Amino acid sequence: MTAYPPATIGMAEIHEAIAATRPDAECLVFRDKRFTWSQVTDRTRRFANHLASAGLGCSTERPVLQNWETGQDHLAIYLHNGNEYLECMLGAWKARVAPFNVNYRYVAEELLYLLTDSNASAIVIHSRFTPVLSAIRDRLPNLRVVLQVPDDSGEPLLAGATWYEDALAAAGTEKPAAGFSGDDLYILYTGGTTGMPKGVLWRNADAVVECFGGDKNAASIEEFVAAAPGGLRSLPCPPFMHGAAHWIAMRTWLSGGTVVVQSVPDRLDAADIWGTVEREKVNFLLIVGDAFARPLLDGLTGGSWDLSGLLSVLSGGAPLSAHLKEEFLGHIPHAVLVDGLGSSEAGGQLSQVATGGSASTGTFPWSPQNHILSEDLTRELQAGHEELGWLAKSGRLALGYLNDEAKTKRTYPVVNGVRFVVPGDRARLTADNMIEMHGRDSVTINSGGEKIFAEEVEAAVKAHPDVYDCVVAGRPSDRWGNEVVAVVRLKDGRGPDETSLLEEAARHIARYKLPKVFVFVPEIVRSPSGKADYRWAKQTAVDAAS
Hints:
This protein has 546 residues and is an alpha/beta fold. It has 16 helices and 28 strands. It is globular and about 70 Å long.
């Protein structure tokens, strides 16, 4: 196994060191706001000092904690993309507060679970989301700091909140007194396969290299600075609430480059994306699979964008179909297309590069730290072994899941003295060292880059009084990669009413989780123990489309 130097240096310290070498260079661009590295340093210090003035920070150091425990206050980032999102992440680390992502599509019930599970001490929120927070505010006794970012919703300042810019203006630009620590947490909430979000805990020094793409061999600040030549101008299209998007933003900063944010962050606007790529001379674009690729490619049809400076397109969070890769290469033949495979639990793992019209999907060249473990997690399978196993990773890994010892030990097993992470992907290592991906061995549906847990959707649909039983599965979709299909048995004498079913489900789950299709059947197939037969459900969903 490859040995790397210990990861001890966190994102806050590295960013400040790089900023000192290029104070007047562009660091962050959003709409008409253009922030230099020096300005981002000042703004994130102000944010950190505001949190510290409220008593937030680190109370228990990492070495005395279990992997699933935290000794810090936690900051919820409940925002659309914009400069504030990235400032909050970086500023939180400067205050020794752990930032985490909030899915802004959540309804009140889901948001309450997330903020309770995380025991959030602080939140930064766009005005348009304040009605959802208001509905549950009195049930969050630990939420002590609320900063609000205005938008075009016209929502007034929430009671007890402070406008974001006012908080920054009132705070100082001195280096926060708490100092910086690579041990401090970066928390990434993922839906996973349990049905409810789980907070994955990373030491941020480990996240720097395993999630954010920092130099694995760097062991000092000087080496990180030397690995930051500048020049990269990246546009991460997806919402920053998804790991892939803010991973690329941090990766850009670790390279000394400029993060560009699209002007329309609340939806995918192809004209806005391509116009921003052209105007800002973006050379690196992040998308999420076919759900992003199809509308972006449609936006190129008949267009006259100057994309000569776009050198790389990365699909993270969902694979990009081979035929769409070929379409991209038809428009930008000089660009490199990359499929990136990773997870909240493992960080980045594998990548596949397509150039010059050669495109495929589903296989990745083996790279160090990646392994295939046997079905029973007792041994490592070698190249050419016919057995289908689990994709695993070794090396610098996340610590575990917040407040969940059992799930931490299941997902991060120790095999023959080596600690691995096994996110749940089935895979095989071929004789020529190619990793064949065979999908998640679970009922999680990946639709448009979002992980959707089937049983959560089932519960929402079954809340309707006309529903007798329901099983949810995914089926292939040109638009979404997979789409959510609800296979429903109605009560005797009740007729199908899809509008009513959707309205009821929408009271319990976010809109993106709602079924795209309903298939009505006279009987739901289950095992004798009552468990749903998801293979039957998926086949039923596929057959209904034919």
